[in-house]
Amino acid sequence: MVSRVLEQQKAIAHVLSQDKGTRHLIPSWQDIDVLEAINKTLGPLVEFTDALSGEKYVSVSFIKPTLHLFNNSILAEQDDDTDLSKCIKRRILEYLNEKYGDSPTQELLDMATVLDPRFKLRYVSEFSQETIKARLTMEMKSIMEAAVMGTPVGNTEVADDGASNQKKRKKGLSSFFKAPHSTAPGAEHARQLDQAIAFELQAYLQAGTLDTEEDPLGWWKLSQNLFPRLSILAKKYLCIPATSVSSERVFSTGGNVVNCLRASLKPDHVNRLVFLAKNL
Length: 280
Hints:
Layout: H1 2-7, H2 9-17, H3 29-42, H4 45-52, H5 63-74, H6 83-99, H7 103-114, H8 126-149, H9 187-206, H10 216-223, H11 228-238, H12 245-257, H13 267-279
Helix pairs in contact: 3-6, 7-8, 8-9, 8-11, 10-11, 12-13
């Protein structure tokens, strides 16, 4: 809106000058200076806002790189900036850094960034890298332990009697020829597990980074056999949207489905109609 006003300022001034009652609304040079400062400062942020609001690609891992770019380049104060521009930049940076500055949020963003093959540890601070590696190791180990115990990863459903809801598998003839093993992992098994996890994490971090224009989900689909545990964590973290725009779009779609003329729809029908509207 501001850029359009600046673009059409001559036409706006001409139209307003035709009527004595609107001549006082003609933007003065002070008004134009303010609008130019706002447009110069906020203009570059429009593309980032649109990019982080997408639904069909990974967005959460872009938050840390974007904040780094804002702090060091786009919103950094320049010598030719006006006092108003500098004030706007400072306020924006203060808000963003405070919004994403708490420890749980930073840890979540670091995990998502590391699991994105386009960035990995590039935007993680040096004193946080060992912490993130330790958390990755811990979560990979929990995945392996769940696999050993036969518990599906991410399945937290529990039956009324406390037993798992997963269906019992039929024993095949080959199961009688398997060597018996203890259900509780011993020290040797734990050591091998730690070595496998450390090797997988090290191999991933030492592998080359993906081009920023490439799709990280496509890369993980091709590499999930090489990094079976990390690929599960990638699915867990990279599915998080960077903004609430996607949920707001669903609310808007629901408002279009349920209106004053269709207020008696059952919830199940509303869910199906919203699903069809978002996926067809």
